[in-house]
Amino acid sequence: MVESSSAMNVDLSVMKRMVKDFTAGAIGGTACVMAGQPFDTIKVKMQTFPSLFKTAFDCGVKTLKQEGFRGLYAGTIPSLAANIAENSVLFLFYGQCLTLVKKLVGKKDEKELSILNRAFAGSGAAVFSSFALCPTELVKCRLQAQHQMNIMAGKTGAKSGVVQVTMQIIREDGFLGLFRGMTSTLVREVPGYFFFFGGYELSRYFLTPEGKTVDDLGAVRLTFCGGIAGVSLWIAIFPADVIKSRIQILTQGSDKVPGFFETMFQIVRNEGPRALYKGLGPTLVRCFPACGALFVAYEGTQKLLENV
């Protein structure tokens, strides 16, 4: 009976941890989108149509003129779905990966884990979040690039919404079509989140005042740490993100989907290596409000749920 009671307590503790991590990740993902969506729209357009825009500012101005303010928030609903799905799953499995890493390195308390340990846990969690992210991000990217794709195809009239775009993908490519760009997503996410969580933990370590712990950081310092995490992520993975965007958008309606390396060599050959960094500027600017909001909301939710 004692052993059974002990096992139930452990299971309940694990379940509470999972629910807390999942909820905090979902709220963090929502905050991230609301703070950074216009920058993400500009990034996707510059990645996909580099010849149409000279700079990020030029892209933003043209989007406002041609599509209005709503154009900068195109794809917000799938963005919310993508970020809530990604971050809830990401932080859920990040907590579980931390527990696994703790066992592997022989530590009794999670607080004893090194920055490197936490970075590897982030990479492991990214494998699972990629499966939640890929379909929703595919729809988001198609919506963000819809205006330019319609012009290229000579189409006019009303734009498609989330449901229409999703159904079009399934109709043309089947259910597995929603996972177009999955390899590119994994290539981007797994190493990217090593740098993301590594950058966040390293920033927290350096910004913690003497005599305090990383849990005592205020909203301003957490925002900065989140921004550094985002910058670390995007500098490391941006070429993979450009390739993913091209595969997901420009192969629309095509039976033959080029592979990751084929697309990369094609971009470099036709446009030069710099094309792999098109849209990096607005992405890095977006990191501080978006990733800052993500971690402030995540850490805040964790504290609110601590005694639940």
UniProtKB/TrEMBL annotation:
Does the keyword field hold Oxidoreductase? no
Q: Where is the signal peptide?
A: none
Q: Which GO terms describe its molecular function?
A: L-ornithine transmembrane transporter activity
SUPFAM superfamilies found in the cross-reference section = Mitochondrial carrier (SSF103506)
Where is it localised? Mitochondrion membrane
Sorted keywords for this record are:
Membrane, Mitochondrion, Repeat, Transmembrane, Transmembrane helix, Transport
Q: Where are the Solcar repeats?
A: 16-100, 113-206, 217-304
Per its UniProt entry, which superkingdom is the organism in?
Answer: Eukaryota
UniProt keyword annotation of Heme present: no
Gene Ontology cellular-component terms for this entry are:
mitochondrial membrane
One Pfam family per UniProt: Mito_carr
Q: How is this protein named in the record?
A: Mitochondrial ornithine transporter 1
Name the lineage: Eukaryota, Metazoa, Cnidaria, Anthozoa, Hexacorallia
